[in-house]
Amino acid sequence: MSRDGDRIVFSSGVGRVCPRCRKPEARCRCREELAAKKVPPGDGVVRVRREVQGRHGKTVTTISGVPLGSDSLRDLAAELKRRCGSGGTAKDGVIEIQGEHVETVMAELAARGYRVKRAGG
Ligand SMILES: [Zn+2]
User: Fold this and answer.
1) What is the CA(99)–ligand 1 centre distance, in A?
2) How far is the CA of 37 from the centre of ligand 1 (A)?
3) Of 14, 45, 72, 121, which one's alpha carbon is 20 to 30 angstroms from that of 4?
4) Quick one: DSSP state of residue 31?
5) Ligand 1 center to 39 CA (angstroms)
6) Is there a single domain that holds both residue 50 and residue 81?
7) Rounded Cα distance, 33 and 13, in Å
8) Residue 65 lies in domain
9) Model's pTM, two decimal places?
10) How remote is the CA of residue 58 from the centroid of ligand 1, in Å?
11) What are the pLDDT tens digits along the chain (121 aa)?
12) What spacing in Å lies between the alpha carbon of 78 and ligand 1's midpoint?
């Protein structure tokens, strides 16, 4: 009798590392943790902030407090970058969009049902 049906094969290797807990995504428990708590990290308010970085004063728009796992956060970042027609990154739970896009980002997030607050100046 074949035992093949009982074998569990892990074929995908280590792959990506979770930016939140720094573990390989296969061992990451962030999503389960957040789901178990049933409340988003922080106070549930997404904060959008205009920041000036570096000595040349490059303006970026940062979005923090988004209650999403790393994959979903990357997806949201991609969508926001499209909306703003700009580049950006998503890491350590913070999305960063190049340029001044506070209004666009806030409108987009509000349309998706997030509680959004403008932070900083
Ligand atoms: Zn994680």
Assistant:
1) 29
2) 15
3) 14
4) H
5) 16
6) yes
7) 23
8) 45-118
9) 0.64
10) 30
11) 445 555 544 444 557 888 888 888 888 888 777 766 554 556 779 999 999 988 888 999 999 999 888 889 999 999 999 999 999 999 888 999 999 999 999 999 999 999 999 997 5
12) 20
